[in-house]
C-alpha cells in the first residue's frame, strides 16, 4: 500500500496510484488594499455539482500580508511516519507573518496558528518565501531578507508538531547573498537554494535599470551540506543567469541533477554534480527576446516565472509571464530539452495591445486574446500545478501584486483566472480545456489575484522523496 503514511513511497507510486485531484487550495491576494488576503478552496472534481467553483474562503485576520507560496507540515519525505498532512504553511512576503492552516476538514480549512512579524524578525530575517517539510520532523521556510529590507539567504526552522520556531537553519558565518526557493536531496548531502533580489527594491516593482547591478538582483545557486547545514558552494551563473527563481531537482531521489529558471534572462539552467563532488551548471533552454515598440524597452524578455517537472522526470513545464505562453519540454535527455508543446494564454504582446512586435524569431503574428465561456483571460500564465498522473496542468495568473499592477493593470482590475490544460503524456502537447474556468474576479467585493495551488494530498512541487537504500 503506497499511502501507509503521508504522501507516497516513491514518485512512481504517486503517479500510478495517486487519486485524481478533487480540491485545490489557492493562495489569493486581495486587490483591495483595505481587505485581507484569502485562501480559496476550489472544487475541481468534474463529477461535483460545484465543479470549478470556489466553495470556501478563509480570510486572513490581517491586511497587507501578500500571501505567496505555500507548503506542508509533512510530505512524502516522511512517508513511513505516523504524522498526518493536515497543516498548510502560508508565509507572507510583505508582512513577514506565517499562517499555519488546519486542513483536517479539507473543504473548510481554518487558521491554526499565526507567527507574528516580531517573532520572525527576532532571528534577523524577513520576506519569507518557500516552505518544505523535512524528514527530520521540521518545517523549513526560506527567507530573502533582513528586517531592514537588505538581502540575505537564510531559512527559518519550525517544529512540525508544535509549530514552535527553532531558529535559523544555516550553521556558520558564511551566508548566501540572496534567497528565494530551495530543494533538498539528502542522498547527495545537498540543499540547493536560488536567488531573487534585494527585497526593498523588488517590492516596489520591476525596473530594467536594477538588473544590471549584482547587488540588487541575484545570479547564483547556493549549495549547502544537508548534514552539516553549512553553505559549501556559491555557483555564480553570471550575466546570463539573472534572478534564478524556481529550482527543482529531478524527483528520482538518487538523481544528482535538476533545473532552475532564470526570470530576467529568460533561460533554464541544468545543474549537476561533477565527478569531484562539486556542482556545476549549463544553460539548456533559452527564450529569445522579442523586439517591440510601446514597451518599457525595445527588447522584451519572456520572463520565466515558474517551472515544474512531472513525477516521471520526463517533462519540464515553464511559464513566460511577459510573452504569455506556457511551454512543455521533453527532458529525457537533460542535456538537450526538446520543445514538444506550447500555448499562449495572455501576456503583453496580444494583437489588441498597445505593444507592437517588430521582430520575432518565433511567431509570424501577435497572438490573439484567449476567452473561455465568454471570460477574457487577463494578465498572463504564471503559477503551474500538475496532476499526479501528469495529464492535467492547472494555471493561475498572478505573480506579485506590485508587479501585476505595473504590467497588467487590467488583470488587477478584473481578477485572476485558473484554467486547465490537457497533456499528451506520450508524445507531448498542450490543449486548453474550454469547459474549465475558475474566475477569481466574479465577486466584485472580492476581486482576487490567484497565485500558488496545492492539493490536499500533495503534488509534484511540494513533495520530496528519499532514497529507499
TrEMBL record:
Keyword match Cytoplasm: no
Alphabetically ordered keywords of this record: Selenium
Pfam family, one: SBP56
Coiled coil location: none
Keyword Isomerase appears in the UniProt entry: no
GO MF terms, alphabetically ordered: selenium binding
Recorded superkingdom: Eukaryota
Family as reported in the entry's similarity comment: Belongs to the selenium-binding protein family.
Protein name stated in the entry: Selenium-binding protein 1-like
Taxon lineage: Eukaryota, Metazoa, Ecdysozoa, Arthropoda, Hexapoda
Designated gene of the protein: LOC551434
Amino acid at each position: 500500500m503506497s499511502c501507509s503514511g503521508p504522501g507516497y513511497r516513491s514518485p512512481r507510486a504517486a503517479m500510478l496510484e495517486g487519486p485524481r485531484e478533487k480540491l485545490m487550495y489557492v493562495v489569493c491576494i486581495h486587490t483591495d488594499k483595505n481587505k485581507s488576503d484569502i485562501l480559496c478552496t476550489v472544487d475541481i472534481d468534474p463529477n461535483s455539482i460545484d465543479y470549478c467553483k470556489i466553495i470556501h474562503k478563509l480570510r486572513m485576520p490581517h491586511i497587507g500580508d501578500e500571501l505567496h507560496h505555500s507548503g506542508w507540515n509533512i510530505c512524502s519525505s516522511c512517508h513511513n511516519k505516523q504524522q498526518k498532512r493536515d497543516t498548510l504553511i502560508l508565509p507572507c512576503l510583505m508582512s513577514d507573518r506565517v499562517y499555519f492552516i488546519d486542513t483536517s476538514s479539507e473543504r473548510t480549512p481554518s487558521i491554526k496558528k499565526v507567527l507574528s512579524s516580531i517573532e520572525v524578525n527576532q532571528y534577523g530575517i524577513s520576506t519569507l518565501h518557500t516552505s518544505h517539510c523535512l524528514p527530520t520532523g521540521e518545517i523549513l521556510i526560506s527567507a530573502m531578507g533582513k528586517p531592514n529590507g537588505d538581502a540575505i539567504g537564510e531559512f527559518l526552522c519550525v517544529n512540525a508538531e508544535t509549530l514552535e520556531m527553532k531558529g535559523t537553519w544555516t550553521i556558520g558565518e558564511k551566508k548566501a547573498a540572496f534567497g528565494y526557493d530551495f530543494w533538498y536531496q539528502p542522498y547527495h548531502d545537498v540543499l540547493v537554494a536560488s536567488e531573487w533580489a534585494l527585497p526593498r527594491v523588488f517590492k516596489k516593482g520591476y525596473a530594467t535599470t536594477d538588473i544590471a547591478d549584482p547587488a540588487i538582483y541575484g545570479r547564483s545557486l547556493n549549495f549547502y551540506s544537508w548534514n552539516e547545514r553549512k553553505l559549501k558552494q556559491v555557483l555564480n551563473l553570471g550575466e546570463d543567469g539573472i534572478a534564478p527563481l524556481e529550482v527543482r531537482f529531478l524527483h528520482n531521489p538518487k538523481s544528482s541533477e535538476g533545473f532552475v529558471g532564470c526570470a530576467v534572462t529568460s533561460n533554464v539552467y541544468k545543474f549537476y554534480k561533477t565527478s569531484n563532488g562539486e556542482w556545476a551548471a549549463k544553460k539548456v533552454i533559452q527564450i529569445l527576446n522579442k523586439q517591440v515598440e510601446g514597451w518599457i524597452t525595445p527588447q522584451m524578455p519572456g520572463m520565466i516565472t515558474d517551472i515544474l517537472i512531472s513525477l516521471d522526470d520526463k517533462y519540464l513545464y515553464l511559464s513566460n509571464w511577459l510573452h504569455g505562453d506556457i511551454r512543455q519540454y521533453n527532458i529525457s535527455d537533460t542535456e538537450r530539452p526538446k520543445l514538444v508543446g506550447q500555448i499562449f494564454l495572455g501576456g503583453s504582446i496580444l494583437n489588441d495591445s498597445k505593444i507592437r512586435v517588430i521582430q520575432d524569431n518565433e511567431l509570424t503574428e501577435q497572438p490573439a486574446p484567449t476567452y473561455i465561456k465568454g471570460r477574457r483571460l487577463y494578465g498572463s500564465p504564471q503559477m503551474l500545478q500538475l496532476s499526479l498522473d501528469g495529464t492535467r496542468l492547472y494555471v493561475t495568473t498572478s505573480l506579485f501584486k506590485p508587479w501585476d499592477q505595473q504590467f497588467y493593470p487590467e488583470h488587477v482590475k478584473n481578477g485572476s483566472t485558473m484554467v486547465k490544460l490537457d497533456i499528451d503524456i506520450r508524445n507531448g502537447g498542450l490543449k486548453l480545456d474550454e469547459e474549465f474556468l475558475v474566475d477569481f474576479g466574479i465577486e466584485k467585493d472580492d476581486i482576487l489575484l490567484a497565485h500558488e495551488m496545492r492539493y490536499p494530498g500533495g503534488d509534484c512541487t511540494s513533495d520530496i522523496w528519499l532514497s529507499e537504500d
